[in-house]
Specification:
single chain; about 425 residues; alpha+beta; Porin; 2 domains; 16-stranded antiparallel β-barrel; globular
Length: about 425
């Protein structure tokens, strides 16, 4: 064979061999690359698994910290009374009195933390709620038999129900809907260190009973209340005979053979005006039959008007009792009224004067009194009060009780 042809055959054979081996070489290379890629993916998967584990641990720790913070915030809300369902409030008042009586033995110079009160309320749902008021009077209550002036009193504890828009009912212990002060008596809401005497002796504020009531509104500004509740147990003998205030039982194992009914109508349709009329009937004010005190009816009317800085409060109350004993004691009609103009020269400072006249059951409860003073509100819920009183009794036998007095007070509510 010619040498050139032999070389040509060899070259062709080599080329053919290379062509036959080429797929295997490429396959080997591809397999190597695939293995490398798989190993790389496996490493990435392992890294992701480790990162996921760390993330889960961190998330659990974060959740625990968030829950702990939430618990602290919830506790803080409860402490501050910010829980949406449970509320806490209260009020208190500290009094200093310097009283100079015509009879020097009746002079008074004392300081007294008169009232410390806490409110607790709870909203069960949109239509049912609970209110309560617990009071400590005169700062100290001794053990049984102790000689201290203090008392612990449960003044309110009732459940209120919404019957329809604008109509509500309640049951339990509640303040009676009568007068200006009986339901609203926090110190920043009224003038004078002491509450007025008409709404102390004739209307025995603070006055609460046990029972059930319903209230609502109609027309433009008219509001009504109706309550059936426990009654008075007034003494018919002794130094406090036929005294209304001495008849309050405070729902403490109270006699309940005869109850009472109270109705009130108020008009609030003019800005700054509150006018009201209350009628109450006691079916037997002594809770005892055939003792000369048979029935009793209270009529009370009031107005509270404010326009700009000017304010005017006025109230009239009258009891009419029937029965031989109460008529013989000349205590069947007990009346009282007061007039109180005031002027608030700024949101923080206001002046007032008040005249009141009373005809109560006891000789000492027949008097008239002038009073003037000022209130200073460093905050709308904190008040400092200063007043001067001048009292003169109707009967000469009580002249020794005539007095002038200076009172200083500190009050708050929240």
């Amino acid at each position: 064979m010619h040498p050139c042809r032999r070389h040509s055959v060899i070259v062709r054979t080599a080329l053919l061999f290379c062509l036959l081996l080429s797929p295997q070489i490429h396959a080997h290379e591809d397999n190597a690359n695939l293995v490398n890629r798989l190993e790389s993916l496996q490493q990435q998967i392992d890294d992701l698994k480790q990162l996921l584990t760390e993330t889960k641990t961190s998330s659990a720790e974060t959740d625990a910290r968030v829950e702990a913070v939430a618990d602290v915030l919830d506790s803080q809300r409860l402490y501050e009374g910010e829980d949406p369902n449970t509320t806490i409030g209260g009020y208190g008042e500290l009094h200093f009195t310097q009283l100079d009586a015509r009879d020097p033995e009746r002079d008074v110079e004392e300081v007294d933390f008169h009232r410390f009160v806490l409110f607790f309320g709870h909203q069960f749902n949109d239509k049912t709620r609970f209110y309560s008021e617990l009071e400590l009077e005169h700062s100290l209550v001794a053990d049984s038999g102790g000689d201290t002036p203090g008392e612990v009193e449960l003044e309110q504890a009732f459940v209120e129900f919404d019957l329809s828009p604008g109509t509500h009912s309640k049951a339990g212990i509640f303040l009676l809907p009568v007068g200006l002060l009986n339901e609203t008596h926090e110190p920043p809401t009224f003038y004078g260190v002491e509450r007025n005497d008409v709404e102390n002796i004739i209307v025995p504020s603070t006055w609460w009973e046990a029972g059930a009531g319903i209230n609502g509104r109609f027309g433009s500004g008219w509001h009504w209340d109706l309550a059936l509740h426990s009654g008075l147990a007034m003494p018919v003998t002794g130094s406090n005979a036929f005294r209304v205030r001495s008849g309050r039982q405070k729902v403490a194992k109270a006699l309940a053979s005869d109850g009472a009914v109270t109705g009130r109508l108020r008009y609030l349709g003019i800005a700054g005006l509150q006018a009201g009329l209350t009628v109450q009937h006691q079916f037997d004010p002594s809770q005892m039959a055939d003792d000369g005190l048979d029935h009793g009816t209270l009529y009370e009317a009031h107005v509270d008007y404010r326009h700009g800085g000017f304010g005017l409060r006025a109230l009239y109350a009258r009891w009419h009792f029937s029965g031989e004993a109460v008529e013989a004691a000349d205590a069947d009609k007990q009346t009282g009224w007061y007039l109180e103009p005031s002027y608030r020269i700024s949101p923080k400072l206001g002046f007032y004067t008040r005249y009141e006249a009373l005809e109560g059951a006891r000789s000492r409860d027949k008097f008239d009194q002038w009073e003037l003073g000022l209130n200073w509100w460093p905050h709308q819920n904190v008040v400092v009060k200063l007043d001067y009183r001048d009292r003169n009794h109707e009967l000469e036998s009580q002249d020794g009780r005539d007095f002038t007095a200076i009172d200083l007070g500190l009050g708050y509510s929240f």
